[in-house]
Structure of 2-hydroxymuconic semialdehyde dehydrogenase:
Amino acid sequence: MPAQTTSLPTAAAPEAGPAPRTIRNFIGGAPVDGVAAFDKFDPVDGSRIAVVHEAGAEQVDRAVAAARAALDGPWGRMSVAERARILRRVADVIDHRAEELIAAEVGDTGKPEALARELDVARAAANFRSFADTVSAAGLDSYLTELPDGRSALNYAVRKPLGVVAVIVPWNLPLLLLTWKLAPALATGNTVVVKPSEETPSSATLLAEILVEAGVPVGVVNVVHGFGAGSAGEALTRHPGIDGVTFTGESSTGSAIMRAVAPRVRPVSFELGGKNAAVVFADADLDHAIAGLARSTYLNTGQVCLCTERIYVERSVFDDVAAGLAEQSRRLRLGRPEDPATTTGPLISQGHREKVRSYFELALEEGATLLAGGGIPTLGGELDGGAWIEPTLWTGLDNSHRTVREEIFGPAAALIPFDTEEEAIALANDTDYGLAAVTWTSDLARGHRVAQRMRVGMSWVNTWYLRDLRSPFGGVGLSGIGREGGHHSLEFYTEPTNVCVQL
Ligand SMILES: O=C(O)C(=O)/C=C/C=C/O
């Protein structure tokens, strides 16, 4: 069911289950009504769980003004040590209020509670602690300059906040990705206006309250809800008061944001789509590789930008890997988030399910052989109103097919055989994207060699989505611009001024 944009919410019509919550914008430390409202549906059963206030140009303008005022206030003059202390307190409050954040994330996405606990909310606290450390340890770029003519000088660069930053985040890992951007932005003294996805308004709104509770001055973080084009997202990226945009999401939206900021030549940091490859060599520990492939293909119902959608397997072990992975996909348990037996939740919405299902049809039209899944499951009861889809695998496709070239962003992958290392690398790099790759082999010299030749930002060997928050994270080609993580984030969120003093 598409989100309904209606006039401002009145008393909700009587309906089964608890009355929908109302979610407002958060500007200058206070809840603010929008110009319209849209419905948020539970992906588990299709029930309406919230009515969300859509920010119009006026609310976006107020949010940018609040952020600018905060930048010119105590926050802009605060020491690094004080900001790092506040970030650490944010992490502590996140830990303390973890159950509320888990409930918010699970309510909006339908993901298993264990996943929200172990990944989304755990990483939110870790992100704040990591950037409190990074900003505290950051030194200055400085040189003692000695010229041939005998003059000497001291060169040093001070880093100042970029300013008011637009933070636009997606619906797949809402809190993880919001805090991955918010932590370094705040660590470096910026103020922000956040536009969460219309599919996942809850955790961002709760986080805004947590930040104030932890001591972040009001106005430093503002949250406006709505859609992209023609809504809050476009109003925000076009706003003359925005000094930069950080965005994670679809590549086509990244292009639209670049066009929006182009007239004012504002910097962008983009982590975009992917069509990520895994390469399995015959000498790999196949049990380990198959388990790893199941995780990289199906984690978060395949709704992670790093998920594998292309699996290249050395021909001599192709049938073993195909059979093993098909068995792993059949073992997945689709079900309610609170059920400990559940491994896999629904897709985020009926609309997204239609997109993923259209690729299931396309794959068969392109000549695929279905190895597992391929349809809409019947789970019974209220769950049949949810956005459920079967974990799926295909063989019989190749790099010429759209199913193998276009991002599906669901629990589905194509298995394709190869014969030589050179061929495997060429197949993996034959894409317009370039985000992540995984190489499975017991020959570590080959692991390093192949991983380095992958045209991606992140190249894993014998593991997937193992993260060091200090390492560079991002992609090439349609997968994005810039890197996040450690000092890479500090470089985006600050502007250096180099001072040269003759001695
Ligand atoms: O793990 C991270 O730091 C991260 O940014 C993950 C991004 C996933 C996008 O879908």
User: Anything to note?
Assistant: The first strand starts at residue 5 and ends at 6. The domain at 5-272+479-500 is CATH 3.40.605.10 (Aldehyde Dehydrogenase; Chain A, domain 1).
